[in-house]
Amino acid sequence: MASAAEELVVEIGSLAACDPSSIVSLEELGKLEDTLLGKRSRLSEIKQALGSLPPEERKSVGKALNEARMSLSDILAARRCVLEDEEVRRVLSSERMDLTEVLGTPQVGHLNLVSQTRDQLEDVFAGMGFSVAEGPEAETDWFNFEALNIPPDHPARSMWDTLFLDVPGTLMRTHTSPVQIHLMVEQGPPIYAVMPGRTYRRETPDARHLATFHQIEGLVVDRSITFADLAGTIEEFTTAFFGSDIHSRLRPSYFPFTEPSAEFEITCAICGGAGCRTCSHTGWIELGGCGMVDPAVFDAVGIDPEEWSGFAFGFGLDRCAQMRHSIADMRVLISNDIRFLRQF
Ligand code: DAH
Description:
By secondary structure, this protein is of the alpha+beta class. Helix content is 40%, strand content 19%. The protein has 2 domains: 4-95; 113-341, Bira Bifunctional Protein, Domain 2 (BirA Bifunctional Protein, domain 2, 2-Layer Sandwich), CATH 3.30.930.10. The protein is rod-shaped, with a radius of gyration of 42 Å. The structure holds 3,4-dihydroxyphenylalanine (DAH). Residues 175, 177, 217, 255, 258, 288-291, 312-314 line the site of 3,4-dihydroxyphenylalanine (DAH).
C-alpha cells in the first residue's frame, strides 16, 4: 500500500499536467494561474503541510512540488506570451489607417502660376532661338554690380535696394543681370540666351512689388547686332506672350550696363490702357529695362567691343504673370490662398 507521501507525489504530478490552450483571454489565464499557483491553491496547501511529514518523506514531496510549480509557471508563461501577442495585433489592426483610402476626388496640385509663366516665357524665347541659362542667387559684388559697370560708390547702386550677406563682398542678387556676366565670362560669344530666376530686394511689398520676386534676363552677343534687333525681339515677345491686344513701347532710360538704355513698357492689362490704380493711372506698366550692352561691360569680361556688339533686357516674371492674368495685386501670388492658386 502506497504511503501518504507517495500519494501526494502522484497528486502533485496530476496537478502539474495542465494544458491551457483552451484559454483565450488574459483575464481567464490570470484566474487559472491563481487557481493553480495562488495562495489558496492545492499546491500551496501541500507546501504548508510539508512540515508535518516525516523528514525522509519531506524531501521527495518537496522536490515534486518544486518541479510542478516550475513546470506550471513555464506552461502558463508560454500561453501568456501567445495571448499578449494576439492582443497587440488586435489593437494595431483596429487602429490601422488606410493611407490608400480615397475620399472623394483626389486633389492634384500643379505648378504655381509664376513657375508656369517662367515655362511659357522660356518656350516663347526658345521658339526664337534662345537657349536657357541659370546662375546663383547669392552673388559677389563683382558679378551683381562691378562687372555691370556699377563700381562701388556709384550713385546708380541706389536703384537696387540690396540685401547684403554676412560674408563681406557677397549679397543676394538684386537682378538677373549678373547671369549675363557668368555667360560672357564662362561661355563667350556668340550668345543668344534667356536667364530666368529669383531675385531679392530690401523692399516693402505692394500691388506691383515683392521683396523676393523673379526676373527673366535676355542677352544677345554677336557680330553686327543693332538696336533694331532689340526692338524687334521685344515686339515679337510681347505679341507672342500677351496677344495682339497688348502693345509695347520703349522709352529712353538709364542703366549703367547698357548704352543707349530703354524702359520697356506694355499696355496695362487690368484697364486696357485707360488708367487704373495698378498702373498708377498711366495706362502703361513697366516690365523692365533693355539696351545695347555697354562697351565697359565687354571690357570687364574680356570681350572685344570692336568685334562684338549685343543687346540685353531684363524684366519681372511675376509682373508678366500679373498682367497676363489681370491680377490687381501681385502679393496674392505668394499668399498660398488655395482659392486663388487653383484657378490657374
Ligand atoms: N537689371 C535691371 C533691373 O533689374 C533690368 C535691366 C535693364 C536688365 C536693362 C537688362 C538691361 O539686361 O539691359 O532693373
